[in-house]
Each structure stands twice: as C-alpha cells, then as structure tokens.
Amino acid sequence: MNNWNSQRLLMFAVVVVLILAGTVACSAADEQQTENSQPPDGSVSNSVVAEQGSLYSALPGSEWSRVETSVDRGLEYLAGVQEADGRFPGEEVAQPAITSLAIMAFLSRGHTPDQGKYGRQISLAIDFVLSTQKRRGYFSLLPVVPPAGHMTPGQTVTYNHSIAGLMLGEVYGMTSGERSAKIETAMTAALIYHREVQTRKKEVESDFGGFRYGYPEGPNAASDMSVTGWALMFLRSARNAEFNVPKLYFDEGLDFVERCHERDPSLHEKGIFRYRPLESEPNGNPQITLANTASAMLTLILGGRHQHEGVTQGAAWFRSRPYPKPWQDGYYYLSSYYSSQAMAQVGGDTWNQIFPQIAAGILSEQTKDGGWPPGGGSERSYGSSYSTSLAVLALTPAYQLLPIYQR
Fold it and tell me: Helix (H, G, I), strand (E, B), or coil: what is residue 261?
C-alpha cells in the first residue's frame, strides 16, 4: 500500500527544482506583471482552473524573499514552543487538530519526518497525534461524550478527526518502518469511523453526504459546510495515499457541498456558499461567509468539479472586492488558509490578484518572536500555534509540496 515511500528521496529534489523554478519565474514576473483588475463584465473564463504555469508570478522576487523569511521564522517559532510529548500548544479540546496543522506547516516548506532540521520534531508530533486515537477510530485528545455544546469534545471531534486524518494521509508516504505501519493501521480505523459519521441518518434529506459534530448520532443528525470541508480533504488525502476510499464517498460529500451553493445573487455580499443548504435551514441564518466560500471552492476543485457554477462565481466574487484585513474577519487565519489554497487552484489572474493581498495582511501580523498572535473573534481561544500554522500554510501554496494541494 505504501508505494509513496519511493518518493521520499524525490522530495528534496522537488524542493531544489521548485526553488530554482521560482527564481526564474520571479525574474520573469518583474517584466511580465499583468493588470489584475476584474474583467469589465465581471466574468471569468469558463475553464476557471487554468493551466497557468508557475504560481510565483504573483509576486516579484524581492517579495518572495520576504515570504520565505517569514515562513522560516514562523517554523522556528513553532519548533520552539513544541511540548515534550510532541504536541503544539493550544486548547485541549482542539487537539490533535492544532498539532496536525503545525505538522502540515512544516511539510509545506519541504521539511519531512526524521530528516533534516525539523525531522525529529515532526516525527514526535506525528506520534502524539497517533496517541490520541480512541477505540472507535476517531482522533480526539479528550473523551467524546454528549452533548455537543460549543467548544466541547462532542462538537470538535469531527474537526480533530478530519484534520488529523488529512495530516496522516499527507505524511504516510514520507514515513517508513514501524511509524508507517502505525499510520496505516490508524488510517484504516479512522476511515471506518469517518464513513459512519457520513452515513448517519440525517433529519433533513439535503444534509445527506455531509458531516457535522460528534453528536447527535441518531435521526436528528445534520451536516454543515465547515466540518464537511475538512472531512472531504481527509478523504481526498487518504485516497491519494491509496487507502480504500471509494469514489462514492467523496461524490456524496461533494453533492452536499454543491447544495450549499447560494444561487441568489442578492445574498452574495459576504460570499457564495452557505453554512448549510437552503433546504436544510430555510428560515435560519444562511451564514454565507468567506471561509465557507473558499472551503467549498477548494473542495469542489480538488474533487474534479471545478466547472461548477459556484466555483466560477466564487472566483469572480473574490476579484470584485478587496481581501479583508486581519481585523475584518472573525476567522481571518482559517479564511486566509482556505482562500490562498483555493486561489492557487484557480490560478492565473485570480491568484495573482488575491494572493498578494493575503500575503500582505499576514506578513503585517507576524510578531517579533516569529509567530502570529491569536486571531480575533472565534479564533482567539485556539492560540498562537494555530494562527502561526495557518499563516504559514496560507503563505506556501506556490511551493506545491503538500501532495493534496498539488495542481
């Protein structure tokens, strides 16, 4: 199953090639920067996900140097705060998700388990995540019991589980021996639990195929875009790593994502995708947000549904307004991570217009110690390891080193 092991030695070669390619692309970009304004009619190409070549065209070479320095300082900060058991600090109820995001931040810069400067730290963190798996197959540091109140394990378990699974799918091909075997066993059990959550009987038919909290488990279960985005990225990462993930599982989830698309243009002030489908909550708050929009776009593109009208509309929506400043979005770091990855998939002028704004906002928030401060609003309680990890992940799509996000 672990045929990715043969690619471990290629990782370092890829890093070198990408850096050299980036240098050439950046030099060319200084001469070939194009106008990034929205098309006069507000439209984008029918083929939204473009074959655009290097993502390095978004910034001149001097700015990429700033980004790389910022990323490296962020990783040094994370390495310095890692705890003895391998975790990166943050709310216990949000573990192992916070630690998994930190691992992915290291991977996004080309660092791998047991190799190089941060190899030991990455491996120790992977072992911590594996230690949080419970007998039912889910990943959660704290026991999961009802009810699913705000910031309780009953609410956060599917986030923890999905983000941990996503990370393990990414590192699986970078490990060998006993650790690789442990990941294989853990992933197999995790996928069984994951399908159990996806196939719970939903109270509303339009929620079928999606994911939500750990509870309720009975006929009153539901789905939402926030949880489903992470859950489908876990499935995609596992499928890429050649675990047994039938396409049906992913397609059912993508159908739910499509149902979250808001077709009424008058409601597009804050985004294009809802928290739940209109049919699921016809009289409720639609919660059309930047984070939900970017997550839905990214998930649909990774699932091969880049021609969906919501992706086209989403790209035009992004280009029609300035990207929010850090204080203007309660989920700024999460939104920026999703937005950066989604715009990298879209590519072309959309990426060239949006990424510099994301990068400028994130760089402006970095602290003297190299990390990023806790976010505002709903993100504040997750701490600096969370915000730093997502900041790094938002700055590194051009490196194309995380398998799931390679174009």
Answer: strand
